[in-house]
Amino acid sequence: xxxxxxxxxxxxxxxxxxxxxxxxxxxGNTVQWKNNRPSREQIEKDxxxxxxxxxxxxxxxxxxxxxxxxxxxxxxxxxxxxxxDSPYAAIHRVASAGKEKGVFTKIADYCKSQSPHLRxxxxxxxxxxxxxxxxxxxxxxxxxxxEDGSPRIAYEYVGNNPKxx
Length: 165
Hints:
Order of helices and strands: EHHEEEEHEHEE
Strand order of the largest sheet: 1-2-3-5-6-8-7-4
Helix content: 25-40%
Number of helices: 4
Number of strands: 8
Oligomer: single chain
Mean pLDDT: 92
Shape: globular
């Protein structure tokens, strides 16, 4: 089950993000989500704006993500090319509790059911996320840059679009 995150979920969500940071660091990704990102303030803001979701299985939160419809300023410029300029939704801040396989697939399936056009990005050293994204039909489109100038690999999913190849 996927549902909006609430304030009551905050402590579990913080634990999941801490576990994700540890997993990334142990697997060669020491640069993404450093300085305790996403911050507690960001998570609280996401909950308040109703864009943070949790994936639950058997009553336990197994994953968390932000699902944001509309234009994402970080996707305005791409070194490469987007497949489609139609309205889209962005997926950000994906993390798994690490107790179940296929969490990103559940998240991607939910997001695809909400929007046929999705965008997501990840760090070049985040190989597990790149694999999960590509396995779920997202196509690498180029490089985008965060506000601080950090590059990220940008992916796009365009349902039923022959251009997505």
